[in-house]
Specification:
By secondary structure, the protein is mainly alpha-helical. It has 3 domains: 137 residues, no CATH class; 110 residues, no CATH class; 81 residues, DNA Binding (I), subunit A (Orthogonal Bundle), CATH 1.10.30. The strands form 6 sheets. It has a 3-stranded antiparallel sheet, covered by helices on one side. A two-stranded antiparallel ribbon has the order 1-2. Helix 2 packs antiparallel against helix 5, helix 3 packs across helix 4 and helix 16 packs across helix 18. The longest helix has 33 residues. The structure holds zinc ion (ZN) (2 copies). One zinc ion binds next to helix 18.
Length: 466
């Protein structure tokens, strides 16, 4: 007992000196240090903090074992409280974190060399925590023996890489454990999408390994850099690839019905975008010609006479031949009159609509003054399947220089814009991947950026070709 008292007073005097030294260090002004001095300060305080954490953790493990999970309650003389609750109050951490610290500290008792490596500052407390995942899973003797190797791996890797290594070990040595982990990962899977109302959406998801394997296998080849001129960061390329995959599904996949028909990208477009309305009306001159105005109710005949009153709804992708775009031109006085809107995402820019319009199957609806549907034309495939195949055979991939996106991921683009009277002829059509297609309609890409050696330049009215 006398020995223990002396030992304790030694610890106290060391802590007193450590606190005094920390106070002294705290008085050193960061602003007064040169860059290499600042780096030294960060590096050495990081290691010190890790080592102190390791020392504290060792004590927590000892407390847990000695008190059976209970420690004397400092607030009530003679009473006991759970170790995590006490740790939470003294360390000022969350209950979750306190529980985690206790579990790690106890598990580290089974890995004495690893715990010592943390205290020595060779590896970080996070490394230590990762390695405790092996405790209870791998036979104790083998685990003790493998400590030097584990420490060596930890020294060379960051905790994420180490966690990967540990999973490999677990997969090799205790498969049932991996099975259990997989099952629980299955239960946790989810995907949430939230509108940030600033023009974009934010998503969070958790996927089991197997599902992520599918996702990344499809995603990564599409997320590669398209040549040297592709300056998109990896995250952007992956986001584009995800949209490509969805577009591919809309174009070609046998998707389940949405409200009784194939899912189709549909936008509501205001009648005030008259040039667009007029262009679409031109596309449907054939439909107009087939209607006898005298045979129609007066209201509808009036609507057919006024280009601004022609609504158009489009349906894309049916039968694996169409694009992904679709449209509805609305009438004045109805929702959507001031801007184009998508049913899921709300307002859409003119460039976005132009891009979709380039490769859409278009259908026109004529709405009455009270919003009732007066007439509905049949869907027309503006670009025929045969044209689409011919363009794909000629271009082979996206025609933007340096881009190799295959036809399945490309829209068919009108070089001379449809709304300016550009014809849907093979010579006026090229393959563009969605990214380059949007760039074109934002005027970030012109004919000189495309591989179109077959292209004659006869159309003086086309602004892009001027
Ligand atoms: Zn286009
Ligand atoms: Zn491209």
């Amino acid at each position: 007992m006398v020995w223990a008292v002396a030992y304790r007073s030694t610890m106290r005097s060391i802590l007193d000196r450590l606190e005094a030294a920390t106070d002294a260090l705290a008085s050193v002004s960061a602003a007064g240090l040169p860059v290499d001095g600042l780096q030294e300060l960060v590096a050495r305080t990081s290691v010190l903090a890790s080592r102190l954490t390791g020392i504290g953790s060792r004590a927590v493990g000892e407390l847990q074992v000695r008190g059976g999970g209970q420690v004397p309650d400092p607030a009530v003389a003679g009473a006991a409280c759970p170790l995590p609750a006490w740790l939470r109050s003294v360390a000022k951490v969350s209950g979750t974190e306190a529980g985690r610290q206790v579990r790690t500290s106890v598990a580290l008792r089974e890995l004495p060399a690893v715990a010592q490596a943390v205290v020595d500052g060779q590896i970080s407390p996070e490394h230590g925590r990762v390695l405790t995942r092996l405790v209870g899973k791998i036979e104790l003797g083998a685990l003790l023996e493998s400590q030097p190797q584990l420490i060596e791996v930890a020294r060379r890797t960051d905790p994420d890489e180490l966690a990967q290594y540990v999973r490999h070990l677990l997969a090799t040595w205790c498969e049932p454990d991996l099975d259990a982990e997989e099952a629980s990962a299955e239960d946790r899977r989810f995907l949430q999408l939230r509108n940030t109302h600033n023009g974009s959406w934010r998503g969070i998801f958790e996927l089991p390994d197997a599902d992520m394997e599918v996702l990344r296998t499809a995603l990564e080849p599409l997320a590669r850099r398209d040549g040297d001129s592709d300056t998109r960061p990896a995250g952007q390329r992956r986001a584009d690839a995800l949209t490509d995959i969805a577009g591919l599904a809309l174009r070609h996949a046998d998707l389940p019905d949405a409200g009784g028909h194939r899912p189709v990208l549909t936008y509501l477009v205001p009648a005030t975008w008259t040039d667009l309305g007029a262009a679409l009306q031109r596309l449907h001159a054939d439909v107009l010609a087939s209607i006898d105005p005298l045979a129609l109710p007066a209201g509808l005949a009036r609507a057919l006479d006024d280009p601004a009153l022609h609504g158009i709804v489009g349906a894309g992708g049916a039968g694996g031949t169409g694009g992904t775009g679709g449209f509805m031109v609305d009438l004045d006085g109805h929702p959507g009159r001031d801007c184009a809107t998508g049913p899921w995402t709300g307002p859409a820019t003119r460039a976005r609509i132009d891009t979709l319009l380039c490769d859409a199957r278009v259908q026109r609806v004529v709405l009455g003054e009270d919003g009732q549907v007066l007439s509905l034309s049949t869907t027309t495939d503006v670009i025929t399947a045969a044209q689409r195949r011919a363009v794909a055979a000629r271009d082979r991939c996206c025609t933007a220089k340096g881009c190799t996106r295959p036809p399945a991921f490309c829209d068919v683009h009108h070089l001379w814009a449809r709304e300016d009277g550009g014809p849907t002829d093979i010579d006026n059509l090229v393959l563009l991947c969605r990214r380059h297609h949007v760039m074109w309609h934002r005027q970030l890409l012109t004919l000189t950026d495309l591989r179109v050696p077959w292209k004659r330049l006869p159309q003086p009215r086309a602004p892009d070709l001027a």
